[in-house]
Amino acid sequence: MSSRFVIGSRGSQLALVQAEWVKAQLSLLNPDSDIRIEVIRTTGDVKTDPLSVIGGKGVFTKELEDALFDRRIDLAVHSLKDLPTIVPDCLALAGICQREDPRDAFVVPKSSAFACASIKDLPAGAVVGTSSPRRLAQLRYLRHDLDIRDLRGNVDTRLRKLDEDKYDAVILAAAGLKRLGFENRITGTIPPELMLPAVGQGAIGIETRADDAGVRKAVSALDHGATRTACSAERAFLRALGGGCQLPIAGYGVVYGQLLRLEGLVASRDGKQIVRDQLSGPAEKADELGLRLADHLLAGGAKELLSGKDYEERTNEA
After folding, report:
1. Which residues are catalytic?
2. How far apart are the first and last CA of the chain?
3. Residue 25 pLDDT class (50, 70, 90 cuts)
4. pLDDT tens per residue, range 51-81
5. Which of 69, 89, 178, 249 is most buried, judged by most C-beta within 10 A?
6. pLDDT tens readout for residues 284-298
7. Which of these, 82, 64, 88, lies nearest to 74 by C-alpha position?
8. Once rounded to an integer, what is the mean pLDDT over residues 224-232?
9. What pTM was estimated for this model as a whole?
């Protein structure tokens, strides 16, 4: 590994926490190295329009990849769920770090009088904030009586809007809340059987140049085998469906020894139609399992959902 290299990161609080964690781990493993973080502003950070307006795929990652191409940085740290499933040939997904809690969490205001042990306990008509089509569709399927409204911004911004009583509850990734030290704000986590997570949710992906053997070797020390296996299956599933984070698609893999169980879902935006299935197979054939599950869902009605008018208006997963 080179004695000096640069980590690229988005400038959000969560992105920087993740980049600082990667820096700390690499510094422990390579104490003589000079490692610094460079903040890169992405299209998704600058613009607040829906993904369908600003371009969809890669809006949180393209500028980081450009910085890798230009050799301004040596590795890029991503929330894996933001990273498109097709990585450019000259780049490599050199590390997938051990996954944090992959579940979604619901949070109520500090002043809330709701005694909620579950999302099912929210009263009819409660205003719930989310900017994720995946969460929105599954929420509507679970609770058609909720008033679901758009919510964008960083985690702290969303919590501030919640505490200003603009919402009765918000749905956020449990991993982000925990990494930012907001674990005490989690009112309840939503089990995958009720709300299937986004592909890659809770995992950190580290991208490098494919020909940079030194940096790739250093990053590989942070790779977590079971997380890579599960996320590889999830990403293969999403890639086969041709979807991205702007569609109501969910996928979640779990490794049990040598066995991998993968569950996937495609929904209509209104939550009235959900196609869901799961498969198990050898962990060593993760990509193949993802492709097979995608075929199952497409044959079971997902093809019609993905090609329908239901997806003409899209917003972003967050």
Report:
1. 82
2. 34
3. very high
4. 444 345 677 899 999 999 999 999 999 999 9
5. 249
6. 999 999 999 999 999
7. 64
8. 98
9. 0.90
Q: Is pLDDT of 316 > 50?
A: no
Q: Are 148 and 140 in contact (CB under 8 A)?
A: yes
Cα–Cα distance, 312 to 149 (Å, whole number): 18
Is residue 168 within 8 Å of 149, Cβ to Cβ?
A: no
The answer to whether residues 297 and 249 touch, using CB atoms and an 8 Å cutoff, is no
